[in-house]
C-alpha cells in the first residue's frame, strides 16, 4: 500500500515537471527567439557585414546608363576630325573684261550696288560696288568676286535681260552736236550737257559723263587733237593717277578719275576732262588714235 502511494507521488512529480517544461517552451516560442543547442554558436559563421566581403561592383563613375556597367575593355569614343573649309576661289577681279563681268555689274545694279550701265570691265568702280555688297552681307570686303560672293549674289538677283546687260548708248543732251564734230573721228565734249561723245563721221559710237576744271583751273575750249596717250599715267604736278590719259592741250587730257567716280560733281579737276566710267574710257582709249580731233564747247 505504501509502495503504491510512493509510485503515484513520483508520477505526479514527473507530470508536473513535464508541464513546466512545456510552459517554458511555449513562452520561448511566443517571444520569437530560437532555441539553439549548446555549442551551436561555435559552429555558426558570423553574419556577413560590409567589411567581410570585397566590393564586387565597379565605382559609380563606371556605371552605364540603365543600370549596366562599363566593360573594362571598352575604349572611349573618338570625335571625328573636321577638315577645314577650302578658301573661296576667285572668279573675277581687277582688270578682267568679259560677259560675266557685265552680268556681275547688271546684277549688282538690280540691288542698288552699281549705279551705271554695265561695261564688262572690272575696274575700281566695280571693286567698290563688290566691296559694298560684301560688307552688307558680312563677307570679307576684298573687292574680288569669289565663289561665295557670286553664289550669294545669284541667290539675291535674277538673270539680267539683254537690255540690262547692254543698254543703248546715251545720246548727247544737245539736240545737235557742234558742227565741228560731224566729220572725221572726234571726241566731242559738251560743257553744257557734261557729256563726251565719241563720234565717227557724225555717228555717236559711245557717250559718257564728264566733269571739268574749276573756275581757278578751267578746262580750255576749242578744237584740239590727241597728241599723246598714256595708259597708266601719274601726274607729275599733283602726284595723282590719271589712267587712260589722252592729252590734247598742254597738260590737259581726257582720263579716268576715281574721285569723280566716288564723289560725282561735288568735286572738280585741275583742268582735265574727267570720266567716271572706267569701263567706257578703257574701251575708248583702245579706239582713239593720236591725231584724232578733240572739240570742247558750250
Write up this protein.
- This protein is an alpha+beta fold.
- Among the domains are: 90-165, Muramoyl-pentapeptide Carboxypeptidase, domain 1; 179-297, Beta Barrel (L,D-transpeptidase catalytic domain-like).
- The protein is built from 7 helices and 11 strands.
- The strands form 2 sheets. It has a 9-stranded mixed β-sheet with strand order 6-11-3-4-5-10-9-8-7. The chain has a two-stranded antiparallel sheet with strand order 1-2.
- The longest helix is centred in the N-terminal third of the chain and has 30 residues, at 2-31.
- The protein is elongated.
Tag the structure with descriptive keywords:
298 residues; alpha+beta; Muramoyl-pentapeptide Carboxypeptidase, domain 1; L,D-transpeptidase catalytic domain-like; 9-stranded mixed β-sheet; two-stranded antiparallel ribbon
Structural class: alpha+beta
Strand content: 15-25%
Mean pLDDT: 79
Which strand order spans the largest sheet, edge to edge or round the barrel?
Answer: 6-11-3-4-5-10-9-8-7
What general form does the structure show? elongated
CATH topology of the domain at 179-297: L,D-transpeptidase catalytic domain-like
- Spans of at least 5 consecutive residues with low confidence: 19-73
Q: Helical element count?
A: 7
Topology, number of strands: 11
Relevant CATH superfamily of the domain at 179-297: L,D-transpeptidase catalytic domain-like
* CATH architecture descriptor of the domain at 179-297: Beta Barrel
Q: What pattern of helices and strands is seen along the backbone?
A: HEHHEHHEEEEEEEHEHE
Helical percent range?
A: 25-40%
Sheet with most strands: 9 strands, mixed
How far apart, in Å, are the first and last alpha carbons? 179 Å
Amino acid at each position: 500500500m505504501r509502495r503504491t502511494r510512493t509510485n503515484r507521488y513520483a508520477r505526479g512529480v514527473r507530470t508536473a515537471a513535464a508541464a513546466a517544461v512545456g510552459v517554458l517552451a511555449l513562452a520561448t516560442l511566443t517571444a520569437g527567439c530560437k532555441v539553439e543547442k549548446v555549442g551551436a554558436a561555435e559552429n555558426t559563421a558570423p553574419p556577413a557585414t560590409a567589411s567581410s566581403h570585397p566590393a564586387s561592383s565597379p565605382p559609380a563613375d563606371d556605371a552605364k546608363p540603365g543600370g549596366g556597367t562599363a566593360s573594362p575593355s571598352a575604349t572611349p569614343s573618338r570625335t571625328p576630325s573636321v577638315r577645314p573649309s577650302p578658301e573661296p576661289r576667285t572668279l573675277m577681279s581687277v582688270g578682267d573684261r568679259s560677259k560675266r563681268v557685265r552680268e556681275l555689274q547688271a546684277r549688282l545694279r538690280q540691288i542698288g550696288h552699281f549705279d551705271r550701265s554695265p561695261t564688262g570691265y572690272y575696274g575700281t568702280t566695280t571693286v567698290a560696288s563688290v566691296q559694298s555688297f560684301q560688307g552688307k552681307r558680312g563677307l570679307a570686303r576684298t573687292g574680288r568676286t569669289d565663289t561665295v560672293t557670286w553664289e550669294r549674289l545669284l541667290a539675291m538677283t535674277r538673270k539680267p535681260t539683254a537690255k540690262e546687260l547692254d543698254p543703248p548708248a546715251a545720246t548727247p543732251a544737245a539736240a545737235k552736236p557742234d558742227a565741228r564734230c560731224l566729220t572725221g573721228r572726234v571726241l566731242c565734249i559738251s560743257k553744257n550737257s557734261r557729256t563726251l561723245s565719241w563720234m565717227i563721221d557724225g555717228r555717236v559710237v559711245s557717250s559718257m559723263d564728264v566733269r571739268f576744271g574749276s573756275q581757278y583751273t578751267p578746262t580750255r575750249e576749242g578744237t584740239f587733237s590727241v597728241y599723246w596717250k598714256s595708259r597708266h599715267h601719274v601726274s607729275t604736278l599733283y602726284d595723282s593717277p590719271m589712267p587712260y590719259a589722252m592729252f590734247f592741250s598742254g597738260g590737259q587730257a581726257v582720263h579716268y578719275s576715281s574721285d569723280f567716280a566716288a564723289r560725282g560733281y561735288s568735286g572738280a579737276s585741275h583742268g582735265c576732262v574727267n570720266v567716271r566710267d572706267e569701263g567706257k574710257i578703257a574701251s575708248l582709249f583702245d579706239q582713239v588714235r593720236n591725231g584724232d580731233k578733240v572739240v570742247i564747247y558750250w
